[in-house]
Amino acid sequence: QVHLVDSGGGLVQAGGSLRLACAASGGTFSRYAVGWFRQAPGKEREFVGAVSWSGGSSYFAHSVQGRYIIFRDNTKNMAYLQMNSLKPEDTATYYCVAEETLADPPFIAQGGWPAYWGQGTQVTVSS
pLDDT tens, 25-39? Predict the structure, then answer.
């Protein structure tokens, strides 16, 4: 069973960039697809993006497509969400998530609910 720890959130101006990190432990990281969900105040949690177990494929919500990148380092049990051209509407708590699967695309990229969650990190984008 994998344990996830989120880090890297903060305050950034609109148009800026931020990189979130997800540190995994307690499982064979390369057997997991990894991604991020987010939740803004008063809204439901929503899928942001995911990367396959190998890092070879990534999937994103339309709202962040072209601005966000996900990559992973299986040798270090780490995944990263690079967020560029940030907008005030990107303000939310971001959660690293994981799914034990070798499928591509992973279930979490197809509307599935992740089994494993980090504690979340706050991202605030000022206008």
Answer: 998 999 999 999 999
